[in-house]
Design brief:
The chain is α/β, with parallel strands linked by helices. It has helices spanning about 1-20, 40-45, 105-115, 145-165, 175-185, 190, 215-220, 225-230, 240-250, 255-265, 270-280, 290-300, 310-315, 350-360, 375-380, 380-395; strands at about 50-60, 65-70, 85-90, 115-120, 170-175, 195-200, 235, 285, 335-340, 365-370. The chain is globular, with a radius of gyration of 20 Å.
């Protein structure tokens, strides 16, 4: 436990120092700056032999989020694109999360080789997205959002864009935070009408049975409130100061491979080289408000809008407590598939079961007792254990319907 406290303390201090030393909200001379050639297509997808194009979508609140579109490297498909699939990543990740293994192991590549028209989403604030029409990443207003806005603005607009370009309903695949975004978006009638089906890996809507030791320690210490009280709005865990601190903590004190376990639960099926490659690209920045919203859910056991406190809740919502997202509003006719694991410390089985009870639909389920939270992305046998099952579910629905 002392080691956990040391890590939490390092996070708090490094965030404070990063903000103070580098100028407010300017972490390490703004790690988002990159050359025009430094794109997800160029970094990970094209080098693997896949065609890839970059797209930018503007949300209703002015953010410029990135989408990548790739298709099979198999010339035998004759250039024909199959039904569109939109991949939505989780917290502190971006679209690169779907390409961190070999083409035979990574879901983004596998879906493309299976003939799907693959689209990769990147939410606001992540490395691959493109900022805002008027706000700078140095502005605290730029970071004034939680997963709620990611669902109702970013994901909704990405679904609309893919639907518009392809003239087809869209298959959605989400992992972790990408599932809570998907569930919140699918409650909206104007969004769900564009969706053919949704596949949710490590589905999250309720979080009050989280067992991850480091997460629970940060919740108990009210890290989210401390960070916001310090005037920190961007959480950039790739700042050099934090990386150096974690390196010093890990060196002779704690196995840093175990750091993932303390956050996500025990993962069974990926190796140390996968962890090393994972940390070459992850984590991506997110907002302190997003962390605050998730910690609210852990403390209160709710799947609700952001809690601003009694008085602002009255002003915004007309009630003392934020309204809940009503999962029963997702149409019974929408096909759903869920994959979850017995060793997942974030998407706990009890919370998944509560989600299932509130849905009208009866999703197809894949339960893997030995899988943890990151196994669903990084497992060396994910194709056999998970993805073939998901793809069979998509194919059982027939060809995506035009609309």
């Amino acid at each position: 436990m002392e080691r956990m406290l040391l890590i939490v303390f390092a996070i708090i201090i490094s965030l404070f120092i990063s903000t103070s030393a580098a100028g407010e909200f300017n972490f390490e001379a703004n790690l988002h700056r990159r050359s025009p050639d430094e794109t997800l297509c160029n970094q990970l997808i094209k080098p693997a032999g896949y065609s890839c194009t970059e797209h930018t979508v503007q949300t209703k609140d002015g953010y410029l989020v990135a989408l990548q579109r790739l298709s099979s490297r198999n010339k035998d498909l004759g250039g024909q694109r199959g039904p569109p699939v939109l991949l939505q990543h989780g917290l502190f990740m971006a679209g690169d999360a779907w390409f961190l293994g070999s083409p035979e192991q990574s879901l983004g590549f596998i879906l493309a080789d299976e003939g799907f028209d693959v689209w990769v989403g990147n939410v606001r604030g992540t490395f691959w997205s493109h900022g805002h029409i008027s706000l700078s990443e140095k502005d605290k207003e730029f970071w004034d959002w939680s997963w709620e806005e990611l669902a109702l603005f970013d994901l909704a607009e990405m679904i609309h864009h893919v639907h518009s370009v392809t003239s087809s309903k869209v298959f959605i695949v989400g992992h972790s935070q990408g599932t809570i975004m998907s569930l919140a978006a699918l409650i909206q009638p104007n969004v769900v009408e564009m969706v053919e089906a949704a596949a949710l890996l490590c589905p999250i809507s309720y979080l009050d049975h989280v067992t991850a030791p480091l997460v629970l320690r940060m919740v108990a210490l009210h890290l989210d409130q401390m960070v916001l009280a310090m005037g920190i709005h961007q959480l950039n865990f790739r700042s050099k100061i934090l990386i150096d601190l974690l390196d010093s903590i890990c060196d002779g004190h704690i196995e840093c491979a175990d750091l993932l376990t303390s956050i996500t639960g025990k993962n069974c099926c990926f190796n140390s080289s996968s962890v090393d490659f994972f940390f070459e690209f992850e984590p991506h920045p997110s907002s302190a408000k997003n962390l605050r919203h998730l910690f609210q859910m852990i403390r209160k056991g709710t799947f609700s809008h952001y809690d601003y406190g009694m008085f602002k809740n009255l002003e915004l919502y007309g009630q003392l407590n934020p309204p809940a997202f009503d999962l029963s509003l997702i149409p019974k006719t929408l096909p759903l598939w869920m994959g979850y694991g017995g060793h997942d410390s974030l998407a706990d089985v009890t919370d998944v079961e509560r989600t299932l009870k509130e849905l009208q639909a009866k999703p197809e389920l894949l339960y893997l007792e030995n899988y943890g939270h990151l196994d669903f992305l990084l497992s060396t046998q994910g194709k056999e254990d998970v993805y073939n099952n998901m793809i069979a579910f998509f194919r059982s629905l027939g060809k995506s319907s035009s609309s």
